[in-house]
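Notes from hallway chat w/ T.B., transcribed later so I don't forget. T.B. wanted the structure written out for a chain they're using in a teaching module, and asked if we could keep both sequence and structure tokens in one place. Agreed to drop them here.
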Amino acid sequence: MPEGIKLFTGNANKTLTKEIADFLGIPVGEATVSAFSDSEIMVQINENVRGADVFVVQPTCMPVNHNIMELLLMIDALKRASAGRITAVIPYYGYARQDRKVLPRVPISSRLVADLITTAGTDRVLTVDLHAGQIQGFFDIPVDHLYAAPVISAYVKKKYLNDIVIVSPDAGGVERARAFAKRLNASLAIIDKRREKANESHVMNVIGNVRKKDAVLFDDMVDTAGTITQAVSALKEKGAKKIIAACTHAVLSGPALDRINSSDLVEMIVTNTIPTDKKQRKCRKLTVLSVAPLLGEAIRRIHEESSISSLFV
């Protein structure tokens, strides 16, 4: 058991936190995170943290704003309890899609959230697969940015041994898909699409050869699954055999599950950065992989002040 380290969590993903604690061989810290009848959040740390190296695990998934407030209030409580260092472990960073001004008079929301987390008293951030890598620069504190690709690629390599092609569902994800393809020694294809408005897209063309190959659509997140399922149809038309989708963050909001179930997808591979609900767990196409060992190893190395650069690839 590492000495001087404490692990806490809000209500966003207690299962993942327990897995990380088991990996590290430590208990989850005692804290009360509840709400008044009007939904105002109340936090109390129920054990001594003075001088401790504290890690707070809290993805900012649905309900996004509620989970962000839980994280901020926990950090403030720990700071006022004289914790030695506070690291916010944010497996899924909400508001990451709003990382720049794409229209007049709109906020850069991901920067604002970064400022809130820093101002609350965070000393360091540990996160997984940011939607845009430059978000690291929005923080004035160290950010350790991990990738779930090793977890997903190990599963794909073991299960799909045929000739595979990695497919980026849009031009913005090409770099991510290329790195994944390199890891699997696979070819690369790209879906060319046009987005009309938020949560709606239209597939235009497939760039690359997918005929008679197993196609693996790879992205950082799947929200309403519109992009992924339209890409599946385009790949099917181009002669792909099995079509698999893989992503780190299973947001799966709105009609996502219905779209996945009714599509030609063979399997939807996700990780547990975001917890799956009862309905999602019943989806026969959904496979959930754990990033607990990845996060646990990063936490151990941060605590020991040793290098974690090997985890960044």
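Follow-up for T.B.: The mean pLDDT is 93. Might be a good example for the class.
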